């Protein structure tokens, strides 16, 4: 094991996110192999992981703790941080207990049963898309929030509150910690009311299933229910909404739309490849803390050091993906890290995949002539948010 001492930290991120372009510094770091010490924008240093196998190690090895960073003012990439008790910030065995209880309610079968309803929602939204029109506002931002609200049993009239609070919680600038706490409290207030209602009058929704979830007599506590509800509401729509807009932009700007129009059976593979090549987070988030001294890429990591994983960089690692820069719908064994890896692999991945497949399949069938209404360079992108996405996606098509 080599101790390189305390290398100088580099300011991170390496610049503002530009559209869906990976920063060139990430490619340099992948070639260097060893993790880079970086200075996080809201305090603290961390080791930045950019290689595929190293990312899998940090995401899955129990020597790296998420719980140790929960609720702590360490190595932050945004004004707020995930509070202790959030499923995202638990280690085994506590994490396994909660995830098992949730998984009983959030099953693949339950998600599969949603397909007819997801298709119905998509059809209604696509009907409203005009030429020219804004696909982001009409389809991308409406579909995931409607689906997660219906799934949990949150009244659709509250979807604007859910979106507004989520944008505050995942902001990387322009908000204060008090703003983020207030947004969490607002969502908690909404969910508290709904949980009381479900206990008195159970319904056919995920929130009722979570209220009833048991494992050998164990039940989710009120706090655990609230934390899960907030995580599902925020994580259940923000990422997918941005991905829909970004995926359509990728297909249109790279002249790959017609490939799917001519071969719609490629949609599932296209979704997986787009998950790999489309950068999602503007900055690496959710730090882990090393529990003991160990070595990664020849660099000594000390116990207590923080590490953050740049998933989009790992997905461009040539040692894991041949011709990684290419958008290849024929790529076999596409083991991308778009949904993470290990025990914290995204619980909502089946739902996200379903929504992405249905929306792309519907758009290529309904509007095969879809194209950008402005040059790709003129598309405006959202700023100040953890998740990359278009501000608007103006499109046109033959009606």
Per DSSP, the total helix count is 16
Please give the radius of gyration in angstroms: 21 Å
The average pLDDT score comes to 91
Estimated helix fraction: 40-55%
Largest sheet: 6 strands, mixed
Strand percent estimate: 5-15%
| Shape field | globular
| Global structural class | alpha+beta
Number of domains: 1
Unreliable stretches (pLDDT < 50, length at least 5) are: 1-5
Instruction: List the strand order in the largest sheet.
Output: 1-2-3-11-8-4
Note the gap between the termini: 64 Å
CATH class: Mainly Alpha
Helices and strands in order, then pairings?
Elements lengths: L9 E2 L12 H9 L3 E4 L5 E5 L2 H9 L3 E2 L28 H12 L2 H6 L1 H14 L4 E2 H6 L2 H10 L6 H11 L7 H24 L5 H7 L1 E2 L2 E2 L2 H14 L2 H16 L3 H6 L4 H11 L10 E3 L3 E3 L2 E3 L4 E4 L1 H4 L34 H18 L4 E2 L21 E3 L3
Parallel strand pairs: 1-2, 3-11
Antiparallel strand pairs: 2-3, 4-8, 5-13, 6-7, 8-11, 9-10, 12-13
Helix pairs in contact: 5-16, 8-9, 9-10, 9-11, 12-16, 14-16
